[in-house]
UniProtKB/TrEMBL annotation:
This is Zinc-binding alcohol dehydrogenase. The keyword Coiled coil does not apply. It comes from Streptomyces noursei. The keyword Ribosomal protein does not apply. InterPro entries: ADH-like_N, ER, GroES-like_sf, NAD(P)-bd_dom_sf.
Length: 319
């Protein structure tokens, strides 16, 4: 099979690799589309290695495709099932072996591109907002970097939970598209980063950008509010005025999924399968796709991922 490989200099190239085999508890999936994520770029820089058991040099954290082989001990999965999954790596290839307990069904009518952009973004959003922050109807939620793949998922999950959502995005030309993500009966307010304070206080601030000033948003919190640190592409080190945190009796929560144990990932997949996939199937959640590239243009795909002005997900196709 063909696979995207990270070379020793942090660049991407195509190589031939052996097809995976469905061992016990695993299935092999023929990949029809795969999502790109900031973690792929971080892995190429050497900052975010793949967890044990996953390819060290093949990026890709989310896939969508058809089951080709079913390993021993796997139940409830059949050859030709349409599936999607959040994986530990290796997704940017024509085939991948995946633990059966992390598979999610692809709803009827959903395109492969949309399916490939769902698992990482919406698993992250649901886990951070609902499971960890306990977002509730009536909460005010600020989402920074809201136009990206995880950002558009955060906006929708917060709105679907009944929260009042403020989406922060640097490019005014994307503001209208962010407002259109609001489910029926709700609204999404959209601001430039410098305007976030005008709509404070917030119960939850979702930090998807990072950078030196990101933790200043603690001062925008309501008493007992929470800051969720989910993305740090803009910089992974930031000072914190701890007295602001103390005065607000606030919580600072950092989260990532990739390094969790297999049991934790299986539990999260079960939660997403039960609570989030039905919302996708009913059309209450959408997966905006910014651009799609074939595998042989992988460098262009990663350049688009790293560049400005995206709305939603960048995906790769194996043809």
């Amino acid at each position: 099979m063909r696979a995207v490989v990270i070379d020793g200099k942090g660049a991407f190239r195509l190589e031939q690799r052996a097809d995976p085999v469905a061992g016990p508890g695993l299935v092999t999936v023929r990949v029809h589309a795969a999502g790109l994520n900031a973690a792929d770029l971080q892995q190429a820089r050497g900052d975010y290695p793949a967890p044990p058991g996953w390819p060290a040099d093949i990026p890709g954290l989310e896939i969508a495709g058809e089951v080709e082989q079913v390993g021993a001990g796997v139940t409830g999965v059949s050859v030709a099932d349409r599936v999607m999954a959040l994986v530990g790596g290796g997704g940017h290839a024509e085939r991948i072996a995946v633990p059966a307990d992390v598979l999610l069904p692809v709803p009827a009518g959903l395109s492969w591109q949309e399916a490939a952009g769902f698992p990482e973004a919406f698993s992250t959003a649901w886990d951070a907002l609902v499971v960890q922050a306990g977002v509730r109807a009536g909460d005010r939620v600020l989402v920074t970097g809201a136009a990206g793949g995880v950002g558009t998922a955060m906006v929708q999950v917060a709105a679907a939970s009944g929260a009042h959502v403020v989406a922060s995005a640097r490019r005014p030309e994307l503001h209208g598209r962010l407002k259109e993500l609001a489910p029926a009966g709700s609204t999404v307010e959209v601001v430039l980063p410098g305007q976030e304070g005008g709509l404070a206080p917030y119960d939850v601030v979702v930090e998807l950008v990072g950078g030196e000033d990101c933790l200043r948003r603690v001062e925008l919190l309501r008493t007992r509010g929470k800051v969720l640190v989910v993305g740090v592409q803009g910089g992974a080190v930031a000072p914190l005025r701890m007295f602001d945190l103390m005065l607000a009796r606030a919580q600072l929560i950092g989260t990532t999924i990739r390094g969790r144990s297999p049991a934790e990932k299986a539990l999260l997949a079960a939660t997403v399968r039960t609570h989030v996939v039905p919302l996708l199937a009913e059309g209450e959640l959408r997966v905006p796709v910014d651009a799609a590239f074939p595998l042989d243009r992988c460098s262009d795909a990663y350049a688009r991922l790293a560049g400005p002005g995206k709305f939603g997900k960048v995906v790769m196709l194996p043809w």
